[in-house]
Amino acid sequence: MAAQLIALPAVERLSPACIRILGGNPGKFTLQGTNTYLLGTGRRRILIDTGEGRKAWISSIKSTLEQENATIDTALITHWHGDHTGGIKDLLSLSPQTSIYKNHPDPGQLDITDGQQFCVEGASLTASHTPGHTADHFVFVMKEEDAMFTADNVLGHGTAVFEDMATYLQSLEQMRPMFKGRAYPGHGPVIEDGPAKISEYIAHRRQREDQVVQTLALRRNNRTESPATMTTAPTWTAMELVKIIYKDVPEGLHQAACGGVCQILHKLEGEGRVSQQGDKWLLVADGRSSL
Fold it and tell me: Catalytic amino acids?
């Protein structure tokens, strides 16, 4: 997977008011590393996320601030995951005056509320609560560029993982009309047409959901037994579904894919479309198990 990723510099100016600083933590799930963003054109700047606490990141932050003759007035944390919060301690050691904002804040931090605005010269941000990847997940729309910092709900490469699929899809639908320009993701390169990428994400998730339903039905239709001889409804485990739906994906990624399939199954269960029996799943029709 890493071989498919384009190289990103450790520090890159993406627009007059936006500098991306990589977290120095490339990996299977972090891609080229966690993206952190320094925003604004004046002396006082806003920082989005802090990486996971790597020395390379705080070194890049320090040198960038020196080059820009700038300070970090405010740091906005998109969600609680360690690859976005791990650098907070290092940041405060370098810049103790920085105010840290985070949903469900830790001691010494400030809370972020839906619709809250954060402004410095050249950058005006509006916060929006968009749970799904995590329950505390926030994105930020930058007025000057009509752009969105999508954090981990939308990535620059591949697709995102999420805690709750139904909530995640609702958040994507919420995010799509909020801006018309770029998406600055939590991982991976800039997305030039952010709303179009969100539409792709929604379509992809709907396609995966359809594949789960179709595969469950395929198992049922391919049964050799007659209905009269069936003693139980045909069932699948989540991993059995993965083996079919993700047959073209390397097996090493099947466990991660299984998490997504489980999310789909739980969403369908909430809608009354599938039923769970232990670690097995089956289709439901008219409130009854399908045979």
Answer: 83
